Amino acid sequence: MLVLGIESSCDDTAVAIIDGHNILAHIISSQLELHQPYGGVVPELAARSHVEIIDKLIKQALAEANVSLKQIKLIAATGGPGLIGGIITSVMVAKGLALANNIPIIFVNHLEGHALMAKFEYPELNYPFLVFLASGGHCQILECNGPGKYIKYGETLDDAIGEAFDKTAKLLDLTYPGGPQIEQLAQAGNELSYKLPISMLNHENCNFSLSGLKTATRYLIAEFPNLKQKHKADIAASFQYVISKQIINRIELAIKKFQISQNQHKINLVFSGGVAANNYIRKKLESCCHKHNVRLYCPSPKYCTDNAVMIAFAGLENYKIGNLSKLDFRPKARWPLYNITNS
Ligand code: KG4
Ligand code: ZN
User: Fold this and answer.
1) Minimal-distance CA residue to ligand 1 atom 22
2) What DSSP assignment string belongs to 272-298?
3) Is the CB of 275 under 6 A from ligand 1?
């Protein structure tokens, strides 16, 4: 079944066409250069840029897949959460195409796109599974019992993990987005150089907190009148080390809870969202999962960050259970995953 996916909730305009678990077209137009001088995403610039390019990308995707709009059986577009200007673009374009061509439509929760991406690449992954979702705007641990059926185990009380990476990168004079740059810089550093605080250790719930670490890193950086490359690498490595410690501590608790709720030890964990592209954190999670008899599923790094394949696939999964959207759907800047309806 041919599904057209459209994503424009942040700084990437993306269009994809999938046929079941096969990708026929996968296009991402990044706005990185547009936002880089500002050290972060400027919402108004992002919104305008999505509007300017979306039509062209849809035409390009249809040509790449060698299909016509008439052959598309479902349109799946991001309906939220994210920057409202961008979401309005995907929602309005999708509504226009659906109405003009009489195609069913599903407005997908962007977070559900991330959560189900691993299932696209590993069809053997069955519901229910545990999801650790870590991106620039979100940090949550959820139990996924199927499309639209999520139970929250925990979330960040302040910053998202990707956000903490981006803000720390800025302090280290690295360009946006900071996650990949800190990971690379950390490879040359000693992770035990500086003792940064690990928050939420052994807290009874599965929540996260990153703001203490962010402030401590800021004070640490301020101690250096002249920050040399070696210092930067050591700070990046120590920062990443402490984040991984918090993640493992929180995930171990979530694994225990999920194993109890499922009444079995052999469970599946999905790690997704932009931060899941981080190889260091993936490795730490892998050994944690190995220790607890848990199978870890991570999307390929290129599908961890924002893309439209994940939106098309989440649309398809919702379509299979009849979760269609209506044309009067309103774009949503905020849209919690653990309480979603696609209407
Ligand atoms: O999922 P995503 O593409 O967009 C959102 O929905 O937020 O995630 C982007 C976030 C950014 O904060 C970026 O710095 C972070 O994911 N990220 C990483 C890595 N690659 C991307 N964080 C840590 N390590 C990475 N390798
Ligand atoms: Zn995302």
Assistant:
1) 179
2) ESGGGG-HHHHHHHHHHHHHTT-EEE-
3) yes
For 223-272, write each residue's pLDDT tens digit: 999 999 999 999 999 999 999 999 999 999 999 999 999 999 999 999 99
The sheet that has 2-7: what strands, in order across it? 22-30, 12-19, 2-7, 74-80, 105-109
Alpha helices in the chain (DSSP H): 32-35, 43-65, 84-101, 110-121, 161-171, 178-186, 211-222, 229-262, 279-291, 301-304, 309-320
Token pair recorded at residue 137: 């705007």
The per-residue pLDDT for 342 is: 58
Does the pLDDT at position 343 exceed 80?
Answer: no
Q: What is the mean pLDDT of the chain?
A: 96
Give the model's confidence band at 323: pLDDT under 50 very low, under 70 low, under 90 confident, else very high.
very high
Which numbered atom of ligand 1 lies nearest the CA of 169?
A: 14
Closest ligand, as measured to the CA of 137: 1
What length is written for the chain?
A: 343
| Statement: the pTM of the whole predicted model exceeds 0.85 | yes
Q: Is the CB of 166 under 6 A from ligand 1?
A: yes
pLDDT, tens digit, 9 for 90 and up, residues 325-340: 999 999 999 999 986 5
Coil, helix or strand for 170?
A: helix
CA neighbor of 244 nearest in space, from 288, 187, 294: 288
For ligand 1, mutation pick of 275, 298, 307, 311 (most atoms within 8 Å of CB): 275
Atom of ligand 1 nearest to the CA of 114: 1
CB of 306 shorter than 6 A to ligand 1: yes
Task: Give helix 161-171 / helix 178-186 axis angle, nearest 10°.
Answer: 70
pLDDT at 338: 86
